[in-house]
Amino acid sequence: MTPPPRVPVLEGSEAGAVALGPVDGPSALEELLAKGRLRATLTMLGPAFVASVAYVDPGNFATNIQGGAKFGYLLLWVVLAANLMAMLIQYLSAKLGVVTGRNLPENVRDHSSRAVTWAMWVQAEVMAMSTDIAEFLGAAIGLNLLFGVPLLPAGLITGVIAFVILGLQSRGFRRFEMAITALLGIILLGFIYETLRIGPSTHGSLKGLIPGLDGTSSLYLAVGIIGATVMPHVIYLHSALMTGRMAVRDEAERRHVLRFERLDVIVALGIAGIVNMAMLAVAAKLFHTPALSGLTSISEAHAQFGHLAGGAAALAFAVALLCSGASSSSVGTYAGQVVMAGFINVRIPILVRRAVTMLPALAVLAAGVNPTSALVLSQVVLSFGIPFALVPLVILTSRPAVMGAHVNRGMTRLLAWACAVLISGLNVFLIVQQFG
Question: What sign has the CA pseudo-torsion 220, 221, 226, 232?
Fold first, then answer.
């Protein structure tokens, strides 16, 4: 006798109802857990690693190196605070995707007017352009430092590399995640080597964890560091990476998936935080001198690595920069696709999008603009886009009608709003200081 079909059930509010797993037989999660806790954990890790690459993109190289050179260890606390905020923000994004089965732009479209949705899409595309400029410039500089390729051809080669990495998506999300994670691992190894080779001051690093600023210039770089760390496009992306990843059929399984994702976020963003702090501390040790404190060029920093710490240190820096630019460029394109499809329900081939979004970065390279200055400026622009992604995220994850039993609790809500207010306040203060 043929058994009846296994019918999925729906759970959650009308706005956030998602398809759960079959009601009979072992669920996908149970089958995964049956293979062993370690294997299940490793299988569930990945989305936060994809998101974390944006937290160690070439913009971080520019802001961290300038921050370390000009102010020594002073801004280490900004890097730490930005990464702690990133952990909370990325987890909220992932939680929204798991609970509702829809990404953040889709949820905004579901709960906002058409005018608001289109305005959100426009500003998100502006942020995506700033992201692309930083990532393309970084990878192009890396190719130039490693192989002497002129910047404009290096930008075109970067586009080809991004196409190859994005092509892995057609073979399943896991291959794409593994490729991005491998590139993140290379970046981490590079800065572990730099740290061990150069040996930043322990006392100076600990002192740098005490909050403090030194004038408008340090504020400008602090905002840039936050913009380079908490990036708007991956706030949108992380929720999309979680939709459909693991079918669940009851609240217990959903909580289990969320526990896995908390671990994913802590590990991945922890690695990104270590890389960023090592980057700034190494720059502080090498470049915070009367002769080098005004260092503003990544190329000059590479040359000084070779002069002060040896060719191997310079090579590790350039390889890490290239991996950072190539991986974050691919992730940025993926995020742009999520933004367009989510806000305005328009889909174009991802390779077409990559080809179009390359153009502003290539124009910057062709114009001969100082690439490092353009990198830092792009990160400040990105910081202004953070509230437009963060505020809707906090609002949606704080609504019981959207999140059901997984609505933000009081302390989570307080911390999330504190992040939004702090970042917005820094931006307003920067405008006053720069133009007032």
Answer: positive
Whole-model pTM over 0.70: yes
List average pLDDT for each run of 10 residues in the chain, which is 436 residues long: 39 40 69 87 92 89 90 96 94 96 96 95 87 84 94 90 86 88 95 95 96 88 79 93 86 93 96 96 96 88 94 96 92 91 92 83 83 72 84 96 95 93 79 66
Spatial distance between the Cα atoms of 22 and 28, rounded to a whole number of angstroms: 9
Domain edges within the chain? 40-435
Domain 40-435, classified CATH 3.90.226.10, yes or no: no
